[in-house]
């Protein structure tokens, strides 16, 4: 049987061993394992990579631990504006949403854009009108309330600072980099050799002006092509947009003939660093190989393959 595999992430950053209580660390590991299993279960039963990445990302969106869905950070207005995208590698179909509010699972709305509209990317009020037409029920703001995220917002809310998820340092302009990212994502290769990627985020605490990061941008934070790879990124979004990171990994494989691992390493350990960005990515190819490089201290991540490998990790 063909090798199938899945990898997920819950953000990269200054994740140093000993910083978290053992209880909290166990919660993160359990949540990652649950998300991994949800996608792997589908793959194991002949499901598609597309269904698997959506299923895994939904589990992460439903957890308050990650900056996506339920755990989305607060904007400067005290709201939650979420971005998500999904792409499949056989026909290069893709869907994305940004600046949406009240949606429990933004990744599913991105998939509906892909499957039930003529478009790829819907934003803001328009995306919300589309969600209504697709019969989405809206969650009340208290569904997204989290005491820690509220505190993070309160600390900077009256300033021009914005902050990547759980960050200890503040950034006052987008040229500066910060240390923790809580976006979630999944990539998978199914038994047919089709691959897919999905990414979902709440963006940055105290963000304003309709700021959108790399996560919903096809080619920057998310990309899939059966010929090369499926990629989901986490990191300093402005840099990942400028580096067109996910597509760059694919290009290095397609045009330069690099392996999945070499292409992913080249982008994360060289190209994105060269322009000042930090973060990581997860990637699979159509042979079920997995790469999960990051240039930060840690990245919440997990992977499982039909070859019998399974891993749930946080630190380097
Ligand atoms: N890349 C995301 C953004 O800039 C942040 C993250 O990875 O947590 O919106």
Tell me what the structure shows.
With 316 residues, the chain is an alpha+beta fold. It has one domain (5-315): (Glycosyl)asparaginase (Glutamine Phosphoribosylpyrophosphate, subunit 1, domain 1, 4-Layer Sandwich), CATH 3.60.20.30. The protein has eight helices and twelve strands. The protein has helices at residues 22-44, 49-61, 106-116, 124-133, 147-156, 237-242, 245-256, 260-274; strands at 5-13, 82-88, 94-100, 121-123, 184-189, 195-201, 222-224, 230-235, 279-284, 290-291, 298-305, 310-315. The strands form two sheets. It has an eight-stranded mixed β-sheet with strand order 4-3-2-6-5-1-11-12. Strands 7-8-9-10 form a four-stranded antiparallel β-sheet. Helix 1 (22-44) packs antiparallel against helix 2, helix 2 (49-61) runs antiparallel to helix 3 (106-116) and helix 7 packs across helix 8 (260-274). The protein is globular, with a radius of gyration of 18 Å. The protein starts with a strand and ends with a strand. Mean pLDDT is 93; it is low at 166-178. It binds aspartic acid (ASP). Aspartic acid (ASP) binds at residues 11, 67, 164-165, 181-183, 201, 203, 213-215, 221, 234-235, 237, 240. Aspartic acid (ASP) is lined by residues 11, 67, 164-165, 181-183, 201, 203, 213-215, 221, 234-235, 237, 240.
What does the secondary structure layout of this molecule look like, with pairings?
Layout lengths: L4 E9 L8 H23 L4 H13 L20 E7 L5 E7 L5 H11 L4 E3 H10 L13 H10 L27 E6 L5 E7 L20 E3 L5 E6 L1 H6 L2 H12 L3 H15 L4 E6 L5 E2 L6 E8 L4 E6 L1
Parallel strand pairs: 3-4
Antiparallel strand pairs: 1-5, 1-11, 2-3, 2-6, 5-6, 7-8, 8-9, 9-10, 11-12
The structure holds aspartic acid (ASP).
The site of aspartic acid has 17 residues, from strand 8 and helix 6.
């Amino acid at each position: 049987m063909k090798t199938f595999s899945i990898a997920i992430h819950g953000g990269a950053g200054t994740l140093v061993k000993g910083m978290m209580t053992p209880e909290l660390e166990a919660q993160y590991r359990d949540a990652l394992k649950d998300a991994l299993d949800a996608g792997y279960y589908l793959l194991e039963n002949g499901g598609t990579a597309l269904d698997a990445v959506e299923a895994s990302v939904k589990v992460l969106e439903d957890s308050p631990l990650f900056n996506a869905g339920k755990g989305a950070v607060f904007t400067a207005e005290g709201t939650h504006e979420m971005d998500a995208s999904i792409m499949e590698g056989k026909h290069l179909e893709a869907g994305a949403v940004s600046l949406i509010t009240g949606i429990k699972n933004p990744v599913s709305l991105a998939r509906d854009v892909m499957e039930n509209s003529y478009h790829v990317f819907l934003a803001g009020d328009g995306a919300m009108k589309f969600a209504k037409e697709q019969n989405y029920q809206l969650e009340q703001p208290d569904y997204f309330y989290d005491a820690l995220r509220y505190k993070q917002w309160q600390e900077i809310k009256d300033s021009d600072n914005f902050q990547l998820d759980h960050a200890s340092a503040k950034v006052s302009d987008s040229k500066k980099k910060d240390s923790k990212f809580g976006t979630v994502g999944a990539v998978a290769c199914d038994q047919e050799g089709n691959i897919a990627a999905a990414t979902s985020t709440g963006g940055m605490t105290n963000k304003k002006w309709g700021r959108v990061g790399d996560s919903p941008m096809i080619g920057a934070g998310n990309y899939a092509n059966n010929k090369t790879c499926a990629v989901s990124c986490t990191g300093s979004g402005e840099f990942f947009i400028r580096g067109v990171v996910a597509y760059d990994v694919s290009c290095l494989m397609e045009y330069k003939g690099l392996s999945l691992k070499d292409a992913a390493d080249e982008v994360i350990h060289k190209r994105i660093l060269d322009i000042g960005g930090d973060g990581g990515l997860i990637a699979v190819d159509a042979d079920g190989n997995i790469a999960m490089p990051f240039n930060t201290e840690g990245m919440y991540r997990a992977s499982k393959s039909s070859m019998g490998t399974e891993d749930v990790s946080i630190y380097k």
